[in-house]
Design goal:
The complex is a heterodimer of chains A (about 120) and B (about 120). Chain A is about 0% helix and about 55% strand. Chain A is mainly β and about 120 residues long. In chain A, the strands form two sheets. In chain A, strands 2, 4, 5, 9, 10 and 11 form a six-stranded mixed beta sheet that branches. Chain A has a five-stranded antiparallel beta sheet with strand order 1-3-8-7-6, with no helix packed on it. Chain A is globular, with a radius of gyration of 14 Å. In chain B, β7 and β8 form a beta hairpin. The model of chain B has no long low-confidence stretch (mean pLDDT about 90). Classes of the chains: A mainly beta (about 120), B mainly beta (about 120).
Amino acid sequence: GQQVMQIPQYQHVQEGEDFTTYCNSSTTLSNIQWYKQRPGGHPVFLIQLVKSGEVKKQKRLTFQFGEAKKNSSLHITATQTTDVGTYFCAGRLGKDGGTSYGKLTFGQGTILTVHP
Amino acid sequence: DAMVIQNPRYQVTQFGKPVTLSCSQTLNHNVMYWYQQKSSQAPKLLFHYYDKDFNNEADTPDNFQSRRPNTSFCFLDIRSPGLGDAAMYLCATSRLYTQVSYYNEQFFGPGTRLTVL
């Protein structure tokens, strides 16, 4: 079936190190969203990418959407302990998003731990 | 503040005893979603609504039902909970996705953690 794969599953870093998580889809995505879920919390929206090759930045976070709109990445520069949590990509399958009203397919998530 | 509210936050039920989880929203979003999330896993979509148009995922067990009596409220009914249904249940809302209005982030509620004894 149509899937969104995310790697790595776990990432342990020292505070100050960089972190990257990658997301790949077997089919073209109309757009991709990224969410962060703190331990014990619920997913919180970070950003949405729509255009081929799009790059967006939020302070230390850089998000990229691939030229073919099948892959995406989230890069955190100089991690802090507040970055701890699970990062999910979530894609809307299909070139035009289909008629799914807004349904997303979530990647498996990357669990980030940051050692002070 | 506009938000998504879920009640209860924690629910304990017995094996086979029906349970209902509720979700309400003040965002006036057309679309509402129910997800099941187990430990260290991604949220798994059970169903979603556009207004009253119900969309069931192919692999959602018949044991799970949903109702949306109005825009603001949505319910998840688990008719005969099994041990495998113990999980966090997340409700989310969004605006309708269209090719013109395609920014439709999902707003999640805090979740209901279901324990089955």
